[in-house]
Task: inverse folding
């Protein structure tokens, strides 16, 4: 693969073909990769053929139904990411002018959970730095989906509620303990504390698979060897309380979910805490615009919590 390395650095500023390659490697689908790059599918396909021709290797096995990364492609992928990261840093490293930073930052967040005024913060940032293209999105699979989007370069920054990962640079923003959320009519609603085992036979209300708080609760039940029955799976954490109050089941949630008709009871097990962090793929924080936005979010959270 020495020819690959040589090609990359010989053609350092001709990065479009590498962008095509990385997008297809991430998506394993040319159509989705083209949509992600705002390019025609035929252009991406032609770019891949050109890159393979230049390198003298086949990077993908392609059929009408699937795309699979071959060993040469697997070896090229981390190198290509590194070059694209370096090019992005170079493009954004010009001294800040009166117009502020420049570049693009794609940000992922949770739906319907306002831990901070992210739209207001991004609006202020954009007014100071009008040449920065800010793109905000949510993931239907919660923290797991946001983390996957970071790993595969579909996002530059994201709020996540997963344990720290060596793949990311991350900054904890806020922390909440886990509590049991019970209907007022539940037999244990007046208890001083409750264990997961005591709730094992209840119906449960929880988030959909992939959300950070469900990951933590599932891990705790797995360690106890308990299989629970989930009666309601939700896509928004604030919706848990009303479902519990309505008698659909019990829940274990971060201690920020409130609802009339529910009682919060401390847990005997040390689950959590539920920590929301701002994360980026390792190395991306060297980008001046990303570093500036991280500082903005952290300062805003400190001001709100201080």
Result:
């Amino acid at each position: 693969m020495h020819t690959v390395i040589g090609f990359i650095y010989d053609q350092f500023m001709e990065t479009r073909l590498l962008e095509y390659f990385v997008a297809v490697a991430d998506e394993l689908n040319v159509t989705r990769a083209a949509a992600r790059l705002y390019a025609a599918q035929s252009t991406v396909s032609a770019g891949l053929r050109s890159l393979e021709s230049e390198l003298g290797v086949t990077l993908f096995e392609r059929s009408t139904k699937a795309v699979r990364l071959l060993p040469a492609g697997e070896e090229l992928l981390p190198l290509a990411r590194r070059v694209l990261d370096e090019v992005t840093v170079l493009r954004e490293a010009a001294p800040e002018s009166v117009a502020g930073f420049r570049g693009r930052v794609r940000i992922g967040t949770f739906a319907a959970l306002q831990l901070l005024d992210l739209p207001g913060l991004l609006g202020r940032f954009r007014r100071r730095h009008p040449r920065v293209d800010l793109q905000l999105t949510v993931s239907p699979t919660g923290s797991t989906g946001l983390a996957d989007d970071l790993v595969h370069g579909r996002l530059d920054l994201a709020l996540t509620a997963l344990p720290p990962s060596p793949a990311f640079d991350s900054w904890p923003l806020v922390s909440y303990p886990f509590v049991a959320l019970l209907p007022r009519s539940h037999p244990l609603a007046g208890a001083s504390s409750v264990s997961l085992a005591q709730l094992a036979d209840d119906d449960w209300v929880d988030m959909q698979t992939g959300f950070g708080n469900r990951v933590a609760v599932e891990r705790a039940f797995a360690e106890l060897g308990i299989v629970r029955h989930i009666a309601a799976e939700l896509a928004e954490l604030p919706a848990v309380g009303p479902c519990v109050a309505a008698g659909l089941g019990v829940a274990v949630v971060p201690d920020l979910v409130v609802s009339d008709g529910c009682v919060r009871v401390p847990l005997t097990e040390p689950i959590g805490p539920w920590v929301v962090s701002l994360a980026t793929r390792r190395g991306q924080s060297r980008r001046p615009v990303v570093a500036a936005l991280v500082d903005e979010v952290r300062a805003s959270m400190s001001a709100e919590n201080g």
Summary: The longest strand covers residues 168-176. Residues 1-9 have pLDDT under 50 and may be disordered. DSSP finds eleven helices and twelve strands in the chain. The CA atoms of residues 160 and 300 lie 17 Å apart.
